[in-house]
C-alpha cells in the first residue's frame, strides 16, 4: 500500500465503500438473473460499481482487485454498448460472483490487517475468454454499427479546402513530449490539437489517428507528438500557447521557412531540412498556490459514517450519564428536603437524559435488510449446486436491531438457511410425487416482540423426523430421558445439542462438522435463544429470539447477602414471599414450590454462588419467578431492591478468560457506584435442569 | 569523558522507564514490578465478589466507571489470607491490554535497579513458589523479587481453576 | 486560498482528493456525488476549479460539464478519468474541460494539474 494512504480513515472508507458496493452489485446481479436478463440500468450500475472499485483499488495499490474490476468493467462496457443477444446469464452471473467472491476475500484480508495476496489471474483469464467469445459471436453487430469515432472525426476536423482559403503568415513545426506516467498521451495530444483549432485550421499531426488508435500512445511516448501548422501568431505567442499545455516535458517549436515541407497525407516520418529558430525548453513546474492556513470544514452531506468504536464510546458515556443523573437527582443528601425548583429541574434533566439515551440507541439501530438480502446469494448458489428449486421470501426486513447484534446473527442465519435448503427442502422429483409445489419455499421473517426481535426461518420441506432424531440421539448417547416422557418440542430441540447431526451425507454447504449447536452458541452469545418446531411433511420453522440491544436493559435489582444482582425485568413473571408450607422437598434435597397447582424448582442464589451471610429462611426472603424458553425457575434472594434501567457491561476479559460463569451475563454500575452482577435468565433456567 | 556522559544522558531520556521497579511487600518479602506495567496505585476499595472464580481473584472493582478484576497476590502465592487494612494497596497493572488490580500488603517505593544488580533466581529450592519470579534484584543488602507479570496472569490458570472447583 | 469543488460518486475518491488537496492548502468548498449535485454546488459555491468524475449515477460528468460551462463559460473543470475512457475524455475536452487526470493519480500530479489550470 502506498504511503500516502496508510492513514486509517482512508483505508476504512475504502473497505466500507467497497463492501457496500459489492453488496449492491450482488443484489443487482441476482435480480438480473431472476428476471431472466439484465436491464440496461443494471448493466450500467454494475459497470459503474466496477469502475469505482477499479479506481479506488488502484489508488490504494491493490492491483489484483483493480485488475479484476477492470476486466468486469470491460465486460459490462461491452454488454452496454453492443447489447449482445443470446447471453447465457447463468454463466455470466457465475463469473461475476466468482470475481465478487475474490474481491470480498481480499477485502476481508485487508480488513484484518493481512496482506491482500490473492491472485486474480485465473478469474481474469476466464473473464477475458468469455469476453472474447461474446465478441466473436456478436461480430456482426459490432461491425454493422458505425463507430462513434468515425462520425465524430469528420465532425471536428475542418476540411482542407476551407483552410486553403486562408493565408497564414507563419509555418511551424512543434515536437512535443509529455511527462512520463501522465497516461493517455493520445488524448493529451488531442487536447493540444483541440485548442490549436481556435488559432488555425491548417494542422497536420503525426501520428494522425490519435483517438482511434491506442497504439499511438506508445508512439507518442517514444517518438513524441509532431504538429505541423500554419498560423498568424508570432513564434513567442505560439510558444506561450504550447507552454500552457499540461504535463509537457519537452517542447521543440521551430518556425519553418516555406510551404514545401508540408507533410504528405500519409506521412509518418518526415524529415524537414530547415534553418530555424530553435527553442528547446525543459519544463520545470513547481507552482505552489499562495494560500493562508484557513481551513473550512467539510460541507454538509446527507449521511456521515462514524467509526463503530466512537459509537460504542458514546453509548458508554451516555450510560455513565444515566447513572450520574440518578446519583444527582436521587442523592440521599436531598432526602427530606423540600426543593420545588430543584425537582422541576431534575425532572427536566431526567427527560433529556432519557431522550439522549433513546437517540443514541436509535443511531445504533440498523435494519436487517442487508443481512437478509445476503441470503439471496446463498439460495441461488445452493439451488444451482443441489439442483433444487427454492425461492426465498423475505418479510419484515425493515426490522431494526443494534449494530453489535447484527454482526453476530449473520453467520447463524446463513447456516440455518443452508440447512433448510440442504436438509429441509426435498428434491423436485420428491416434491412432485408428494403432490407439493415443485418450487420449494424458504421464508425469512423478522418482527418486533417487546424488547426482542424474533426471526423465523421457515421452510416447506419434509420436516423433522422424530424417530430419526431419537434414534440418532440414542446412538450418540445424547438421550437422558425416556422417549415417552419427551414432548415433540423437546425431541426437536435435541438437534441443537453438540454432537448431533441428522444428515449422514456431508454436503458442501451444511454439515461441515459444525452443527446446529454452533448456531445456538452464537445466538446465546448475544443473549438470544433458538428453538425449533416442525410438522412432518410440511416443513420446519426455526425461531431465533434476539434482544433489540445489548447495551441497556430494564432490570430488577435483588440482594443476596452483601451482593447485588440484577435480573432482566422481561424475564420476571412474578415475585412473592413464599410460605414455608408451600415448599416441597424431594428425596435428593431438591426444593420446589407449588404455585396455583404447578410445581416450580427453586434455585437458591446464595447456594449457587456460595454467598456468605445470606438469608436462608424462605419466609424471610423472596422468590423471583423467572421464565425463559418455556422453562421456569424460582430464584431465592434476600430482598428486592427496586427496578431500574441498567447499562450492561461485559465482565472483564481476564475473568471471562478464566471461566464462563453459568448464569451471569455481565455486570452493571448502580447509582451509588457499586457493582451489580447481571443474571442471565437462559443460563439460570438451564443450570437448574442440570 | 564528556562524550560518555552525554551518551548516558541520552540513553536515559530515551527510555526513562527502563530499570525502574515499583516495590511492594507481602509479609516479610519484597517484590518488584516493572514500572511500565503500572497504571496507578489505589487504596483498598469495595470489592464485588464474582462467584465460581479461583480464590485469589477477589472480585471486581469500579475504577471510575471501568470495571476491573482484582487479584490478591498473597493468595496467588498460596500464602495465608490477611485482612485488608489501610496499608493494603491495589496496584493497577496493564499487561497485554488486560487491566488487573493486584492487592498487596503495602507499597514501598520506586527503585532504580541497574542491569548489573539483577541476577537469575536460584533454581534449586523447588518448594519455594518461584514460578512468578523472573529475576532477583539486589539493592544494598536487600533482595527484591522481580515479578514476571505475564506469568502472574496466565501461568497455571487451568490447574488453579481445577483446584478451586 | 483557491476553492475547489470535488465531484465523484465514490466517497473514497472524494476523501482521497480532499486529503491530497487540503495538505496543499486548497479550500474544498464542496463535494458532490453526481452530476446534478455538481451543478447545484457549482452555482452555490462558485469554485475556482472543479474536479469532475466521468462515470456517476443520476447524471454523468459530461452532462454536468456542459451545464456548468453553459452557466459559467470560464469554469475550470478538470476531468477525472480512467484508462479506457479516451473517447469520453476527448468529448469532455471538446465541451470545454480544461484538462484531465487519469486515475489512479498521485498527489503531486493532481496538485500540479490544478495549479496549472488555475494559472490559465
In short:
The complex is a heterotrimer of chains A (690), B (165) and C (120). Helices cover 43% and strands 21% of the residues of chain A.
Features:
heterotrimer; B: 165 residues; alpha+beta; six-stranded mixed sheet; 11 strands; 19% helix; globular; C: 120 residues; alpha/beta; Rossmann fold; 5 helices; 5 strands; 22% strand
Layout of SSEs?
The complex is a heterotrimer of chains A (690), B (165) and C (120).
Chain A: H1 8-34, H2 40-59, H3 63-82, H4 89-111, H5 121-137, H6 139-144, H7 148-156, H8 160-165, E1 170-178, H9 185-196, E2 203-206, H10 215-223, E3 225-231, H11 235-243, E4 248-255, E5 280-282, H12 308-329, H13 340-364, E6 365-367, H14 369-386, E7 390-395, E8 400-402, H15 403-424, H16 428-433, E9 440-449, E10 452-459, H17 466-475, H18 488-492, H19 516-525, E11 529-535, E12 539-547, E13 552-560, E14 563-568, E15 572-576, E16 583-585, E17 591-595, E18 598-604, H20 605-608, E19 622-628, E20 631-637, E21 639-647, H21 653-658, E22 664-669, E23 675-679, H22 681-689
Parallel strand pairs in A: 7-9, 14-23, 18-20
Antiparallel strand pairs in A: 1-3, 1-4, 2-3, 4-5, 6-8, 9-10, 10-12, 11-12, 13-14, 13-21, 15-19, 16-17, 17-18, 19-20, 22-23
Chain B: H1 2-14, E1 20-26, E2 29-34, E3 38-43, E4 57-63, E5 66-72, H2 73-76, E6 89-95, E7 98-104, E8 106-112, E9 118-119, E10 133-139, E11 142-147, H3 149-154, H4 157-164
Parallel strand pairs in B: 2-11, 5-7
Antiparallel strand pairs in B: 1-2, 1-8, 3-6, 4-5, 6-7, 9-10, 10-11
Chain C: E1 3-7, H1 11-23, E2 27-32, H2 35-45, E3 49-53, H3 61-71, E4 77-82, H4 86-94, E5 99-103, H5 107-119
Parallel strand pairs in C: 1-2, 1-3, 3-4, 4-5
Helix pairs in contact in C: 2-3
